[in-house]
């Protein structure tokens, strides 16, 4: 299939033309190409930087259900997914031309009874964390996922899972394998140790403070706030009446979340879009996350970039460049104004999906 596309690119808005042959983009004209799109906006496929393919509301899914999740993401234009921990091995999806590209972080790493049952690899002896981190780094696609904090029922509140000392060793072990590390963190207390240990990204980050924002800037730590998932905090608190301190903490984190994320963005912390789809959030909602980022002070261009060209650069994946895979979206109207929910054309590996 030979295709030709013409429109305006983002973020600069300049006119662009692309040709597609054998699933690859070309900046040079290709003969006998059919014009598939002419007039409008052309941008790289969207990115969901916190997505769980193979995880559903009840826990691990079947492979067939995981395929349906990936198809849902594809159909809304999310063509690159960073799977931030999954109990299901989806590496076979790489052989399919009809599914989004997935960057895997392997399995969640946690302490026993300190995360959702059935999802993580439970590590009894924290001194073994560096060994498990190196193993998941080799299994994944350049990322490792730690559970940084969770409710400690003995304390009755959120508490860190790991000592600062072992985090230094574990993150160094991932970096030695060429992988980056991210962590689930809701509260305040786990953040300084993770950031000082050199972690590359914080997921959720509802407990960030002025001090931890300064640390993130010092260490170059990114933030994926999963804002639409934070909307579940009041419901989580309502179900935690047995732990009133924890329940109050979750409500307080919910109430201050937008202010804290806005402060991080304003200070210059790199912020990227991720939905946390797969558990309490349905797949296919990256457009809602982009809208939520605008509510914490991002401009329309910044919010879209956080789920598109900027996110691709951060994840070290190509956007629209000569020789790259033809993974792109086309919109008749400016997606910064009308949103991204209904792309007029979805092109994945050069194949038209919408």
TrEMBL record:
Residues 41-351 form the Amidohydrolase-related domain. Gene3D superfamilies: Metal-dependent hydrolases (3.20.20.140), Urease, subunit C, domain 1 (2.30.40.10). It holds the Pfam family Amidohydro_1. GO terms for molecular function: hydrolase activity, acting on carbon-nitrogen (but not peptide) bonds. This is Amidohydrolase-related domain-containing protein. It comes from Mycolicibacterium bacteremicum (Mycobacterium bacteremicum).
